[in-house]
Write a structure and sequence with these properties.
alpha/beta, seven-stranded parallel beta sheet, 15% strand
């Protein structure tokens, strides 16, 4: 992927897709900084990255809090010596159509993406001026592409993320920064919501599984691989796109 030596910041990297993204970059030889609310998960991640003999920096950060993002980004840049790639992964998973559900998705999914991108912009611009340029990858969802009675706030805000990704791509192209999004389908991982539903025997799990042509839910690493591609020089002519990674879930069995 030609990512060796790149300096990558993953917002929301302690578990699931974010953890797979952080480890994927580290395995490619990139220096990685990650934040999340869970200190224990971050500590484990830092140990795993450190074992790969690449620089690692982690720090707790509540991505619903603007001041914590504003503090984490420059700290990460100082630890890594700059920022070449920003991955906005965190989600509040707002599902209920009420004030709490909308606030959860807006404050984390939307505003954390905006705030982290703006805080990282000066560092990304420095990288964008050099050969190879800089990249932002935002995590969207296939929920952005179809209506849902189960998670109206989550889907609507992810649709806004797709729109913002295109706007960022236009705003930042002249600065050498590419911006893309990845829209995962249903992804299962230890401790995640889908694993919990499977273990509980929830009918929704089997309903979703039956919609996927491969007959299974996705793995975090399958999303991470696409994120790595979009952040790499191999995707140097790709910007303003949202790439679906769902094993065919949207098109059905």
């Amino acid at each position: 992927m030609q990512l060796k030596g790149r300096r990558v910041v993953v917002m929301g990297g302690s578990r699931g897709i974010g953890r797979a993204i952080a480890l994927g970059f580290a395995r490619e030889g990139a220096a990685v900084a990650a934040c999340a609310r869970g200190a224990a998960g971050l500590e484990a991640l830092r140990g795993e990255i450190g074992s790969l003999d690449v620089p690692a920096f982690t720090a707790p950060c509540d991505l619903a809090q603007a001041e914590q993002i504003a503090a984490f980004i420059p700290a990460a840049a100082a630890a890594l010596g700059g920022i070449d790639v920003l991955v906005n992964n965190a989600s509040g998973f707002g599902s209920t159509d009420d004030e709490a559900g909308w606030a959860a998705s807006f404050n984390v999914d939307m505003m954390a993406t905006v705030r982290a991108s703006q805080a990282a912009l000066p560092f990304l611009e420095q990288s964008g001026a050099r050969e190879g340029g800089a990249a932002i990858v935002n995590l969207s969802s296939i929920s952005a592409l179809r209506a849902s009675a189960r998670s109206a706030p989550y889907g609507a805000i992810k649709a806004a993320i797709d729109h913002y990704t295109g706007s960022q791509a236009k705003m930042y192209a002249s600065r050498g920064i590419r911006v893309n999004a990845v829209a995962p389908g249903s992804i299962e991982f230890p401790g995640g919501a889908w694993e919990k539903r499977r273990l509980e025997g929830a009918p929704l799990y089997e309903s979703i599984r039956s919609q996927i042509p491969a007959g299974r839910l996705g793995h975090p690493e399958e999303v991470a691989d696409v994120v790595l591609f979009l952040a790499s020089h191999r995707a140097r002519w790709v910007t303003g796109q949202s790439i679906v990674v769902d094993g065919g879930q949207l098109i059905g069995p």
